[in-house]
Amino acid sequence: MTAFDELNRFLEDRLEEFLQNNPHLELLALDEQLQEQQVNAQRSLSQLQTQETQIQSQILETAREVELWHHRVRKAETAGRMDLAGPARDREAALFRQGNQLWGQMQGIQAQIQTLQDTLKHLNDRRAEVKQQIQALRQQQAQQPPTSSSSSGSPSANPWTAAPPPPKAADPLEVVFQQWETDLELEDLKRQMQR
Predict the structure, then answer these.
(1) Angle at Cα 180 formed by Cα 177 and Cα 184, nearest 5°?
(2) Are 131 and 31 spatial neighbours (Cβ–Cβ below 8 Å)?
(3) Cβ neighbours for 49, distance < 8 A, ≥ 6 positions apart
(4) Which residues, 6+ apart, have CB-to-CB distance to 19 below 8 Å?
């Protein structure tokens, strides 16, 4: 494992740990991801529906041509023009095959459309669940500050309120550096006063 891989893994672990410790952020990230999936699915659905419409038009045009060539086959046979009836029959058969291929493509697209519609419904339902969880967490955190600040030593941060974030003194390394820097300033002041 290279140093870059180790660093990448370390950062992923820290991010995962951070999100677990801040469930509201995890829910917001999940909501954003679901919204992006919805947009992509809706875009794909629109493209498939456009393709479906185009293929339906092609199928109708092919059906008209099949009808035309079928009429020409009968007309040539009635007139005894087998030299024209044979090629007309071949053209009619080729158009039937083309129509069958288009029909198969349309059915495949319709299956994809149905799958995307099911996916969109699932994404909508999942997003609604996540929004309910976010709302419940907001309500829970809105009710927590009076009790948690008196019962526990650590201030609770509610990202959805206008209250300023808690001071960064919670970082142990920051605390150590602040204490050390304060001690250095005090020593420097003492030296200046002794002069």
Answers:
(1) 135
(2) yes
(3) 113
(4) 25, 26, 29
Q: Region of 80 please: left (phi>0), alpha (psi -120 to 50) or beta.
A: left
* Residue 168 banded pLDDT, cuts 50, 70, 90: very low
| pTM summary value | 0.57
Q: CA separation (Å) from 67 to 63, 73, 83, 106, 183?
A: 6, 10, 20, 21, 97
Q: Tokens for 13?
A: 């672990």
Top-tier CATH class for 3-139: mainly alpha
Q: Whole-angstrom Cα distance, residue 46 to residue 49?
A: 5
- The pLDDT tens digits of the residues spanning 94-104 come to 999 999 999 99
Closest CA to 120 of 30, 42, 48: 42
| DSSP structure class, residue 22 | -
* Predicted local distance difference test score (pLDDT) of residue 18: 65
**Alpha carbon distances (Å) from 59 to 26, 45, 62, 73, 140:** 48, 21, 5, 21, 58
Distance from C-alpha of 114 to C-alpha of 174, rounded to nearest angstrom = 55
Q: What is the pLDDT of residues 120-140, one digit of tens each?
A: 999 999 989 988 888 887 787
Which residue is listed with tokens 């493209």? 47
Q: What average pLDDT score do residues 108-116 get? A: 95
User: How far apart are the C-alpha atoms of 71 and 100, rounded to whole Å?
Assistant: 20
